Every structure is written in structure tokens, then in C-alpha cells.
Amino acid sequence: MNRWYFFFFVILIGGGAWVWVSRIPAAQAMPRGPQPAVDYPAPDFTLPTVDGSTVTLSALRGTPVVLNFWATWCDPCRREMPALQATAANYDGQVVVLGIDQGEEPAVVQRFVDEYGLTYPILLDEEFAISERYAIGGMPTTFFIDAEGVIRHLWVGEMNRITLAEGIAQIAR
User: Fold this and answer.
1) pTM to 2 decimals?
2) What is the mean pLDDT, run by run of 10 residues, along the chain of 173 residues?
């Protein structure tokens, strides 16, 4: 009987040592670089706006950002525009709302902006480069990014004022 206890003890110690020796060293662990995922830094980008200026995401550090991917032909995107505009107006100076139009010509986007009376920055991703970087699979998709540039919440689908307020509550602390 004592042999079995000894054998079990040797296996237990040997197994623990094997697990400790074969672990991945900290130097090889995956870094937490920019990724389009919650609790990761938001990938940086620079895009032109519909009015001809440019916006760089990292230049907005220090202010929470609501980053909304959309298109003029997307019905849920159209339905959420009044809520996004109201949010941009209500949180002016506290939160930046950015809209990223996917793959459309500036003239088409400008007509849409005029029709809906949008006053927050509308960026143009004509080549889908940023949409691909953010792995956008459906529209609308919205990232809520805190003042340090970290994604804290992600919403896929149409939003209303309540879902926007809930997302902003997670980034405007």
C-alpha cells in the first residue's frame, strides 16, 4: 500500500514539474496590441471626411468615441441615424461620435448627410480598408471606445437612444 502512495506522489510531483517547465514563457505570450475586440486597443486609422478634412482616431485620445460603421443603402443604419445625431448633440464635448460610411462615393454620402441633417463627422472608407481592419461583417456595427483608446463595448445591429446611452455609460466614466 505504501508503494502506491509513493508512486502517486512521484507522478503528482513529476506532472506538476512537467506543466511548469513546458509553459509558454512570458516573452512569447501574445501581446495585447490593437484588435477589433472588447478590452483591446482600437486599431488606429486616418480617413477623409465627407467635408474634405481628415480624422485620425488616435488624435482623439482623452475623449471617448462612438465609432459607427454604416452605409446609405442600409435600412437599419437609416433608422438609427436620428438617435446617433441626438447622441452627438447631447454629448457634444464629452463624447465624439464618428460615422464611417463603407464604400460609397462622397456625393452619395453628402446627399444622405444633408437629408438627415447630420452634424457629427462622417468619414469615408471608400476602399473598405478600415472596415476590413475592424472585421465588419454586418451593418450597422458600433464600437464604444474609452478615452484611453480601448474598445469597451461592441454593438452589432440597429441602435436606439437607450442602447447608445448604455454603450456610452461604459466609456464615459
Assistant:
1) 0.80
2) 72 72 58 77 97 97 97 97 96 96 96 97 96 93 97 96 95 86
